[in-house]
Amino acid sequence: MGFIAPLPGAQKLRYKLTVVPPGKRAFPFHNYRVNDEMFFVIEGAGEVRIGEAVYPIRSGDVVACTAGGPETAHQMINTGALELKYLAISTMLSPEIAEYPDSAKFGVLAEYPAAPDCQPRGFRFVGRDTLSLDYWDGE
User: Fold this and answer.
1) Quick check: is 136 in a domain?
2) Interatomic CA distance for residues 132 and 23, integer angstroms
3) pLDDT (0 to 100) of residue 8
4) What is the C-alpha separation between 63 and 38, in angstroms, rounded?
5) Is the per-residue pLDDT at 77 higher than 60?
6) Which of 31, 55, 82, 97 qualifies as a FRET site for 65, CA 20 to 30 Å off?
């Protein structure tokens, strides 16, 4: 995965080049509650899972995934013999709630302004709602 620096005038978008080896998946099946993503397939072939459907993808295809519930969950899968390369473009609203329907997990993700050394900073927590504490626990 390679992050592409934000372009002037596009400070609320993230650009990421992802290369998926044959037989592998880019990320776990997931959806976002806040941010939208769009993928442009540069090279290779595979499948994209969206909700309960599976669609073939190949070089030149564009896939848009909107924010929402499990029906918008998505995952890129390389079913081809060559690397699957795609450009991901996503909105950058923070904080974000990600859900992982296959494993019943969720993630709370937040980004903070970069540190003085320009390193990204943020908060990430992944868990399951069955491990939640009561609001008044320990108070």
Assistant:
1) no
2) 35
3) 56
4) 6
5) yes
6) 82
Residue with tokens 């937040």: 110
Is 83 inside a domain boundary? yes
Among the listed residues 5, 12, 1, the one whose alpha carbon sits nearest the alpha carbon of residue 94: 12
pLDDT band of 1, cuts 50, 70, 90: low
The pLDDT tens digits for 4-16 are 665 556 678 888 9
The structural domain count of the chain equals: 1
Residue 105 lies in a domain: no
Specify if 24 maps to a domain: yes
Which DSSP string corresponds to 66-123? Answer: -S-SGGG-EEEE--SSS-EEEEEEEE--SSEEEEETTTTEEEEEEEEPPPTT---EEE
Tokens coding 78: 């390389």
Interval 101-130: pLDDT, tens: 999 999 999 988 777 887 778 999 999 988
CA distance 64 to 50: 10
CATH code for position 28: 2.60.120.10
**Alpha-carbon Rg of the chain, whole angstroms?**
17
Domain that holds residue 33: 2-93
